[in-house]
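Bench notes, afternoon.
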Amino acid sequence: MGNPGSIIFISDKNTFSLNMGQEIANTKFSKQDFELFQSALEKETATLGRWLSANKLCNDKLVGGFEIEGWILNSSLLPASVNNEFLARFDNPLVVPELAVFNIEFNNIPCALNGSFFSQLHSSTEKLWLSAHETAIQLSEPSTLLLIGTLPTLKLSDLNEQTMSDVNRYHALNEQIMLRRHSEPLHISISGKDQLELGSDNVMLEASTTSFQIHTQVPAKDAHHYNNAAQIISAACVALSANSPYVFGKDLWSETRIPLFEQSIDTANPNAPIKRVSFGKNFFQQSIHECFTENLESFYILLPTVAKQNDTLKNLRLHNGTIWRWNRPLIGFDENKQPHVRIEHRAMPAGPTIIDMIANAAFYYGLSHYWAQKLINGFPLPEFDEAKKNFYIAAKYGLHHSFNWYGKKLNPTELIINELLPQATKGLESLNINANDIDKYLSIIAKRVESKQTGADWQRNFVHSNNCDMIELTRAYQQLQMTDTPVHTWNY
């Protein structure tokens, strides 16, 4: 959902403000709060438009970063509500709380997208992950960590307001969303091999979905092209990274995280053109400002904590932080208050391993850069409905259903191997990524796609081959995750 605080990281000459969700002081709001916030939001949206027109935002080279959401489990591989103790013991600013008390989020120090970016990212992330594991083992209730899109052992009874992290932002969002719904329960309905139907009187179902979110700081003048590129390629990214087939013991979509998150946070606004969690309603045509204008015009204000006399668009950023597009433009600032735009790709799940996620990132970064350059140079956009339908086909079926790609029906394996992987390679080469990194990580994608064994495929194959329950599945998955070997090599 996003986390409290905003950390500014500095790496060489590159600065990157990773806005993990602004914490707020108040959780109760008056009518005047909403009126004041509306006025401030209108002014800041207009200000952003002027800044973009005047080229005041950063137009430097690309910078990359990520967020990984994870689980804390007890010795029985059930959720352990101990993130406060874990975070106090680990005491690392790169690891922060998430919505539920059994979730945490890992961040990295963003840096320029060139050279040995991916091998360095792999090394630093693995070191952080292993160190976090050591801390989890030493808790008063010895625990372990897990990275997966949806936790197979999670129970509906684990999700309630008592298991919400003690963060004002989360409690206020929950209250405001339910107020907007006039306390009408959220309804979840997902059809796969099995059927999931349930209701909830809070937003905690969102905590059952954990992601690998990729950030790219991009030239502001081209940000709409980078966002459109991310939309175009999202279906392929979801198909090859799917890792969320089981929710509450039911076999649903390959990436059930997608519909579950969309349905778990819904203000039921009849006037909004899209829901707060969505693929969007169209490509952006002229500027990334179109996104923030849409935010202003189409979405209820949920957190009207007015930041007065600020020069960092805090109100605009706070409002944008309560709208969760699968590809979400963000505004950030460096230590000199220089504004920038980054695109947050939220569609891929956590796991199965660190090396798998770095490979996913290499594919996304290379392909999104390649497609952004094509669009900048005048290549036509596809039909938006085509990209949107592909996205949900990928979420439901993974690599096992065809896409419509610029009017042609293509098997996703054929599309990725023959077209998209070569394009990702060219995109990384144009960023001056080391050849060894390109070969290492994109070859993992190629082998995974050729074998058609994503994390979701392995989970289903393991359950079917071993006739096992969700605890045994989780135990086998965790053991293999700790080897950091790519999921396409896992036996079942």
